[in-house]
Amino acid sequence: MEPTVAELLSRIETLEHVNAIKDLKSRYWAAADRQLLDEVRDCYLPRGAVIDFQGVPLCNDREEFIKVLKAQGGKAGFHAMHHGQNPRIRITGRNEAEGLWDIYFGSVDMTDRTTIRMSGGYEDRYVFQDGRWWIAVTKFRQTSFIMYKIDDRGVPTVISMGGADLHAFGS
To answer: I need a surface site. Which of 5, 61, 107, 140 has the fewest CB within 10 A?
Structure first.
């Protein structure tokens, strides 16, 4: 049996929503990497967003999270790159969706002479409000972590392996 026009329109709408959510998450990572904190803020629900990242203090709204980001990065010589992949987005209601993402993260802090390599996964909840998608809840858990301190000769020394510690993200 051929799908009806209504069924096809529903499928198209679902694909548009999934793509908008992928764009939202990509926009968040790019803004975080570039330390564009106003753009990071604009990815999270204005009230009640929950940001629960392993190794980072729990934040119960986007303003708390921006304060954490300012304390951890926001300085010259700090460079980061999120490589998000394998998105599994599921529309769960008219204005709700869930997402799972894998990630590889790397950073270089030229001032502190440290570098981090980390992988893990995100579990997100999204809401459609005011004509757009927002991140309402995001939870990140590490699957691997290593942090190096680079001495003046360029020799790396492992200072944390297996999980973020106080040196990594200010937690």
So the answer is: 5
Query: Could you tell me the pTM of the whole model?
Result: 0.90
State the pairing for strand pair 96-109/50-53: unpaired
Q: Following DSSP, what letter does each residue of 74-130 receive, concatenated?
A: -STTEEEEEEEEEEEEEEEETTEEEEEEEEEEEEEETTTTEEEEEEEEEEEEEEEET
Determine contact, residues 148/158, Cβ cutoff 8 Å.
yes
Closest CA to 56 of 69, 43, 46: 69
Lookup result for tokens 């753009």: 39
User: CB within 8 A of 154, min separation 6: which ones?
Assistant: none
